[in-house]
């Protein structure tokens, strides 16, 4: 399972940073969080396949987070996509998609399902067999949501208990693991709870979108057991007034929320175009004395969620 940072810039792209877009690769599927301009071309230099994207999550409707969507959808159509795609975002997302696709001509023949979020409280928007997705309302200059991915793990079999109860290796073990009781040859019924251990803790990742620092967001992540937080840090900590004025966060703000959340890793993104040189970010990170691993994201950075390592990967 890997995070691929397609774009890590803010409102204005630079030679080093495209508009923000993050792909999460999980079991052959790609979840896309925001889709800034040029996202599809960035994918060409990575292991991310646009045709594997089934769900797109839009934090808010500022251009640097959405302008890659029309081109991405049209390229999917050119590549022969027939499967529908789901797009989640705040109220106004449906109109945005309609207007975006009304510009020029296109041959999109697959279904585009748009789900608008209007909750003032955290809400679960996807509950599938493999994972859950939560939307958390954050505070920006327009309606904006953070997103949290939480992996689901199935309960584990206690083989010693199963054998002691007379369960033989074969279909009965599979049924028990799937939560189905089985009847043994001697007539005894074995229930799943008799032989199952609690599931291992799944991976939990949060993406803040654009926001001021919100303590309740950190507390919510702690409750969910998130270990990775991707938080915007548009400004270094000397520009706190700029952050307040534009409803963004500084490096210090992001660290504060990460500490409240109790995450293992904080990844800083949405870096302002004023920072052609990010040495000031690196200096702040180096001076941090806490226990959180802090990473300043770069375009084409890959974070391996299993190995807890990151590297730059650009494919030929």
UniProtKB/TrEMBL annotation:
Keywords, comma-separated and alphabetical: Endonuclease, Hydrolase, Metal-binding, Nuclease, tRNA processing, Zinc
Xref: Pfam families: Anti-Pycsar_Apyc1
Leading EC class: hydrolase
Cofactor or coenzyme needed: Zn(2+)
Cofactor binding mode and count: Binds 2 Zn(2+) ions.
Keyword tRNA processing applies: yes
Binding of Zn(2+) 1, residues: 60, 62, 140, 210
Residues of the active site: 64 (proton acceptor)
Record-level Gene Ontology MF annotations: 3'-tRNA processing endoribonuclease activity; identical protein binding; zinc ion binding
Residue ranges of every copy of the Metallo-beta-lactamase domain listed in the record: 18-270
NCBIfam families (UniProt xref): PRK00055.1-3 (NF000801), RNase_Z (TIGR02651)
Quaternary context: Homodimer.
PANTHER family cross-referenced by the UniProt entry: ZINC PHOSPHODIESTERASE ELAC PROTEIN 1
Entry similarity comment: Belongs to the RNase Z family.
Official protein name in the record: Ribonuclease Z
């Amino acid at each position: 399972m890997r995070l691929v940072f397609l774009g890590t810039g803010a409102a204005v792209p630079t030679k080093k940073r495209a508009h923000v877009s993050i792909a999460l690769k999980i079991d052959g599927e790609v979840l896309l969080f925001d889709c800034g301009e040029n996202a599809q071309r960035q994918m060409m230099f990575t292991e991310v396949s646009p045709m594997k994207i089934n769900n797109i999550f839009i934090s808010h409707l500022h251009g640097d987070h959405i302008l890659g969507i029309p081109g991405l959808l049209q390229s999917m159509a050119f590549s022969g996509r027939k499967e529908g795609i789901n797009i989640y975002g705040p109220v106004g997302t449906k109109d945005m998609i309609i207007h975006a696709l009304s510009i020029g001509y296109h041959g999109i023949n697959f279904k585009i399902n748009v789900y608008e979020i209007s909750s003032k409280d955290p809400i679960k928007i996807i509950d599938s067999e493999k994972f859950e997705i939560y939307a958390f309302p954050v505070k920006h200059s327009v309606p904006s949501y953070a997103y949290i991915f939480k992996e689901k793990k199935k309960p584990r079999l206690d083989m010693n208990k199963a054998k002691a109860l007379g369960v033989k290796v074969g279909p009965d073990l599979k049924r028990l693991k799937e939560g189905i009781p089985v009847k043994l040859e001697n007539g005894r019924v074995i229930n799943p709870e008799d032989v199952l251990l609690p599931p291992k803790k799944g991976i939990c990742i949060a993406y803040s979108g654009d926001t001021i620092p919100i303590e309740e967001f950190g507390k919510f992540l702690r409750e969910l057991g998130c270990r990775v937080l991707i938080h915007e840090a548009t400004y270094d900590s000397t520009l706190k007034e700029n952050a307040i004025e534009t409803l963004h966060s500084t490096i210090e703000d992001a660290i504060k929320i990460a500490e409240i959340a109790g995450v293992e890793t904080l990844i800083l993104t949405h870096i302002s175009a004023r920072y052609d040189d990010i040495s000031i970010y690196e200096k702040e990170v180096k001076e941090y004395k806490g226990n959180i691993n802090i990473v300043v994201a770069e375009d084409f950075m890959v974070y391996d969620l299993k190995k807890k390592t990151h590297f730059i990967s650009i494919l030929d």
